Queue: 2 jobs
Job 1
Amino acid sequence: MKTVAFLGLGHMGLPMAANLVKAGYAVRGYDLADACRAAAKEAGVPVASDSAEAIEAAEVIITMLPKGEHVVSVYGDLVRKIPAGTLLIDCSTVDMESALKAHELAASAACSSVDAPVSGGTGGAAAGTLTFMCGGEAAAFSAAKPVLEAMGKKIVHCGKGGNGQAAKICNNMILGISMIAVSEAFVLGEKLGLSHQALFDVAATSSGQCWSLTTYCPVPGPVPTSPANKDYQPGFAAALMLKDLKLSQEAANGAGASTPLGAAAAALYENFVDAGSGGRDFSAIVEMLRGGDA
Ligand code: NAD
């Protein structure tokens, strides 16, 4: 039985840690927030009283933290305390620079490391059906894979350290842009007197087909399970979409890539979040576009 320390028991981390417990791993979790530690105990995840206790004798340390700065700071502390050979897996969504820094810190302590951000949201975390996009050496990936399989359905090795974050950032840039594209099409269709269902029936089986339309349709009706039918409760909150679009723009600037639609999507989501909608599902951007105040 492998011993796993799990740092960051928030919306995503707690259900992920609970799935590791269910799969038979000896988990010790820790979160800075009292409420998260209490919720973890309630969910049957053993909780340590501090991070030092959580990582003691852990063969694997998983982090699921808000941002790159948190990951780099936690890794900076960890690598002074853990034995060589410990496997570090960071599942947070972070900027490229922090992801590479985390790998560097792990290597400085002769530890192996994988960046393994996820797709699938809190629903996927609870159901154990997340997709993990992984960056790191082949041996580190092989060691991480069985652990990740206890929390996800699809585990993809994207290449060298940092490539998991690169895949996540690129995927979510497609998502942000495509949600705006689909929303604009519905708004234009409304003005032209086209019903939502008619546009859906055509586009879902035509060249406009995409996940933002067929799985996550931003208008109520055509896809009954989409957040549009639940007053745009997240789902995937607009604030998180903005975070990921900003990461894509930072990465594009750093790499010298031209991403004009990514930049436009980031600006639109910034307006949306600034208008107080950060906690709503990201598909609610259709309402801002309909209002014409984009
Ligand atoms: P969250 O804010 O709910 O959880 C993060 C937790 O980390 C918090 O509970 C916080 O107290 C804890 N934390 C911060 N610093 C810590 C430290 N030093 N030690 C221990 N705990 C610490 O965030 P979340 O929604 O669970 O997201 C986590 C990561 O996953 C983010 O990077 C996010 O972008 C990414 N993500 C989220 C979703 C989603 O739908 N929520 C989907 C995909 C990816």
Note: The first strand starts at residue 3 and ends at 7.
Job 2
Amino acid sequence: MSAGGETIVAQLRARASFLGFSTFGIAPADARPDLPQKLQSALQSGWHGDMEWMEETRDRRESPAALWPAVKSVVMVGANYAPDENPLNRLTDKSLANVSVYAQMRDYHDVIKGRLKDLAGLLARRTGAEVKVFVDTAPVMEKPLAEAAGLGWQGKHTVLLSRDAGSWLFLGTIFTSAELPASTPEAEKCGTCTKCLDICPTDAFPAPFRLDARKCLAYYSVEHKGQIPLQFRKPMGNRVFGCDDCLAVCPWNKFASATRDAKLSARETIRDAGLSDMLALDDRRFRDFFAQTPVKRLGSARFLRNCLVAAGNSGDRHHLPAIERLFTHESPLVRGMAIWAVRQLADTAETEGLRAKTLATETDPEVRAEWSQ
Ligand code: SF4
């Protein structure tokens, strides 16, 4: 390693820390020759569900050089977004509409990207090399590269885990044509622990380090465009966007300090959102309430779909009037889930009355089928 290389790395590390990144490391671009094989077995298993972009971007995802042939080194950074309380505690309060920790704040892509560009600018000025910046915006295998760069290791829950931030780490990536001194890769430190696998409410881990998205509540509540399959509705509980169970239970979180980064801290209005208030959001108020957060991308219809699952699971009949109002919503996703929610809360006479009323006018076959599920 040259003295010049060490100096540049020290400057980059210091700048990364100043910008709010809690971890920093560098990997050679070819550090993970196992990636094509890893990707192939993941795609062959079909565990990515209907996330077709995984297949479509496969060739470019296989290695950094497949995406950009000039790349020599990969700079990886992580930003700690650890919450100040265990999110598992909020699952028992059925009056809450529980949003995953990462989505309770401004979209991290927006926050991290500017900081990453600043860091990449320093690298380009000091070396004269080319740089490219990625925050989950291109087919980059961020987690294995972060492991190679020494930021942490991919836990049995498949998420990158660090000694300092536990499971709560946003990743940013810089590709550069500069050859930089590499960091020491981090070894896997899960040992015999299986807490994340055991807590999963839908048994979505067919094996350690393997996630079947087709069984994952985060996938159904965030990515899936259709109706929530029947077998996942009860396990969803009051989760209306994402699921943190496997992240939150990890023992390594005890070494994480709650983030002090204001831009990566929860908005209290979202963290404490009540289910009654969420069921009453129309499209405009939904977009205002979740402005600049990942939840906004879900759209109000799918968000209401999820809230109706939570209402059906709440055991609280006070939600019935709000649910009934959604019987006439323009989206069949919402109308269908309103029927399911009513059937969880209403008595037999109420259910029969509503059934007759809605079947008289409902024409969508999937919505009508909800009465016979
Ligand atoms: Fe690894 Fe245990 Fe954390 Fe899962 S809960 S990622 S097995 S240490």
Note: The chain has two domains: 3-84+105-176, 202-242+274-372.
